[in-house]
Amino acid sequence: MTDQLTYPDVVQLAVPFFIIAILIELVWIAVKGRGGRYETRDAVTSLIMGAGNVASGILLGFIAWGFFMVLWEITPLDLGSSWWVVLICFVLDDLRYYWVHRFGHRIRWVWASHVNHHSSQHYNLTTALRQTWTGTFTFMMVVRAPLILVGFHPAMVLFCGGLNLIYQFWIHTEAINKFPRWVEAVMNTPSHHRAHHGRNARYLDCNYAGVLIIWDKMFGTFVPEQDDDKVDYGLVHNLGTFNPLRIAFHEWVGIYRDMTQRGLTLRERLMYALAPPGWSHDGSRKSSEELKQAHLQRHPEDKGSAGFS
Ligand SMILES: [Zn+2]
Ligand SMILES: [Zn+2]
After folding, report:
1. Distance, CA 115 to ligand 1 centroid (Å)?
2. Residue 2's pLDDT band (boundaries 50, 70, 90)?
3. What value does the CA radius of gyration of the chain take, rounded to a whole number of Å?
4. Are the beta carbons of 271 and 107 closer than 8 angstroms?
5. Which ligand lies nearest to the CA atom of residue 114 in the structure?
6. What is the pLDDT of residues 41-71, one digit of tens each?
7. d(Cα 145, Cα 67) in Å, to the nearest integer?
8. Which of 39, 80, 157, 305 has the highest Cβ tally under 10 A?
9. What's the 197 CA to ligand 1 centre distance in angstroms?
10. DSSP letter string over the chain?
11. Ligand index nearest the alpha carbon of residue 120
12. Could you tell me the distance, in angstroms and rounded to a whole number, from the CA of residue 104 to the centre of ligand 1?
């Protein structure tokens, strides 16, 4: 068994490049007078959320790592460390990311962790760093289990996950419009990910991809950015706060409040944690499907167009 396999912490190594890229984007926007918008408080909040994500990784990362090493002890399979194994691992881990991200939007328990990434009403490179502090508590590390059990070393799986995260950094920009068709067809791009950050009914729950957009096309969640439906960034119900603690924990508090209401059945209490965001026992809130339906009632001409089919 290749127990001693180690890879560099690529995300940590990339931090100086993140900072340089943010400065370049800032200058670009200032010089061109277009291609994005920065609001100081928003950008600072995003940077604090990024730092908190690193801190939570240092504090809680051992939980996922311990779980992965137990799986590695159990499995008799070991695919080794050749370059093609790393390549296959990267592609399969990108599929893993797609599903974790999709669960992150469709299961409120997981959304409670992911919501902060969508809490900015701006879209620039700092938005990419607005990452969760509570990922460990979603238990989404289990989605990596099959990769390790079929013989990809945990260090390789985490290395590929790090590369995936780095790829996703640069697509958080309005400075790049669209790439040639073949690039947009295969890769996740700024255009596809802008749509993912949209609160317009059309763009709710689309484009979960990390690196390859093909997963969204395969699983029916792809919606291209429309020139005539400009992306409105943020949450269906925007938070209206720059307080990092509120951003990090508000949805967990919301779940707790909803689950502990008086007079609910056990099923209703569980649904407040496990149903898609917007589910309510009395129908007083709207899910993304209902928001899409409400949009179609106002704009019947959109029926059958991207995001409404
Ligand atoms: Zn998302
Ligand atoms: Zn994003």
Report:
1. 7
2. low
3. 20
4. no
5. 1
6. 999 999 999 999 999 999 999 999 999 999 9
7. 9
8. 157
9. 7
10. --TT-----HHHHHHHHHHHHHHHHHHHHHHHS-S----HHHHHHHHHHHHHHHHHHHHHHHHHHHHHHHHHHH--------HHHHHHHHHHHHHHHHHHHHHHHHSHHHHHHHGGGG--SS-SHHHHT---S-GGGGTGGGGGHHHHHTT--HHHHHHHHHHHHHHHHHTS-SS-----HHHHHHB--HHHHHHHTB-SGGGTT----SSBTHHHHHHT---PPPTTS---BS-SS------HHHHHHHHHHHHHHHHT-TT--HHHHHHHHHSPTT--TTS-S--HHHHHHHHHHH-GGGTTSTT--
11. 2
12. 7
pLDDT in tens, 258-273: 999 999 999 999 999 9
Tell me the ligand closest to 188's alpha carbon: 2
